[in-house]
Structure to design on (376 residues):
């Protein structure tokens, strides 16, 4: 029998998911006297473990490094970068104590996500960590970020990571029960909003300012993150990470909080972007066998079916895929190339296992992964 949950929000069923991002804010991890507390982290870790055992994948985006650093660095030296550097080890140690599987620290900057090649590298690293059964814990790399290029808050970082790894859902653990029609701490008559079919201006106006003093964001940044996730087809669920009953129910697929629906499916959003993103000059040239595999089987493009490359594009560029045979040449697809034009000319016709031997390095066995490709 499912335990009774006392919440102002009605129960609703979680959307089906296989891969998720869980964002945990500083207010759930900071101890009252400074440093970190396992009090609320334990329940969230149990939620992660239950889903991993069920065959799902979870990436944690965790704040708390600066809060941890405050317990180490004297107040007179309270530089954010220094506190973050000292606190990161404490933060990873906190999460590692709850899991038998290895916890991997991943620090990202604005440049990592703006530069297409570094974006692809970050995505490949996270996917490989998940494949290996590790638990990635992501945070902004405050020690090297400059103020004008900071991501700013981990709510928006979590939405970016969700898009980066093609997550099905973004969970945001907060210190209130969900979205209200107004700030419930100032307006006792505020109504709980448990279901948001569309993030309109009226809904955004319900968000207050900054929340807990331990963090950098409030409900406004959570809705901004939900909007960012929604644009790529990812639903967002807000819930109270301090309520152990709510967290236990979440592990059973029961949400007591706010679900914010994406405006379109994840696949539709991805395919729309692939169809309409600007192309770089150049093309990958393929043979009839590769064309049939892309068109009829939804396969990735492998080097064995590649005949060559036109132009001088780089790894991470959006380019055309052209079928070239005796009948002529036709544009068959477009996608994000994992290799530069010069690399593709060298590995064309080779088996995927030969890539590292030919190039001396390897970005994976696909020239274009099927998730990064759309047939026209």
């Amino acid at each position: 029998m499912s335990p009774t949950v006392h919440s102002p929000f009605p129960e609703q069923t979680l959307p089906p998911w296989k891969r998720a991002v869980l964002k945990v804010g500083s207010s759930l991890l900071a101890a009252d006297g400074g440093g970190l507390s396992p009090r609320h982290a334990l329940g969230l870790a149990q939620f992660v473990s239950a889903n991993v055992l069920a065959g799902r994948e979870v990436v944690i985006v965790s704040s708390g490094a600066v809060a941890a650093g405050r317990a180490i660095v004297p107040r007179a030296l309270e530089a954010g970068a220094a506190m973050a550097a000292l606190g990161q080890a404490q933060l990873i140690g906190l999460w590692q104590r709850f899991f038998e599987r290895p916890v991997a620290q991943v620090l990202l900057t604005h440049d990592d996500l703006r530069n297409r090649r570094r974006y692809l590298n970050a995505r490949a690293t996270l996917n490989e960590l998940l494949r290996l059964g590790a638990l990635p814990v992501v945070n902004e790399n405050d020690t090297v970020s400059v103020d004008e290029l900071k991501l700013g808050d981990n709510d928006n970082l979590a939405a970016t990571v969700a898009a980066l790894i093609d997550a099905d859902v973004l969970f945001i653990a907060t210190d209130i029960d969900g979205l209200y029609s107004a700030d419930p701490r100032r307006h006792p008559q505020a109504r709980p909003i448990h279901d948001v079919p569309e993030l309109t201006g009226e809904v955004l106006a319900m968000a207050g300012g900054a929340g807990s003093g331990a963090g950098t964001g409030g409900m406004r940044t959570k809705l901004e993150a939900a909007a960012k996730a929604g644009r790529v087809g990812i639903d967002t669920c807000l819930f109270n990470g301090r309520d152990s009953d709510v967290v236990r129910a979440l592990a059973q697929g029961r949400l007591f909080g706010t679900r914010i629906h994406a405006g379109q499916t994840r696949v539709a959003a991805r395919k729309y972007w692939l169809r309409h993103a600007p192309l770089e000059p150049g093309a990958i040239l393929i043979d009839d066998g590769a064309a049939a595999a892309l068109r009829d089987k939804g396969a990735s493009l492998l080097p064995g079916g590649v005949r060559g490359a036109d132009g001088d594009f780089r790894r991470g560029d959006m380019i055309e895929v052209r079928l070239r045979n005796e009948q002529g040449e036709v544009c068959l697809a477009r996608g994000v190339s994992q290799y530069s034009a010069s690399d593709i000319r060298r590995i064309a016709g080779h088996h995927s296992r030969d890539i590292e031997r030919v190039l001396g390095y390897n970005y994976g066995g696909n020239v274009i992964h099927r998730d990064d490709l759309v047939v026209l």
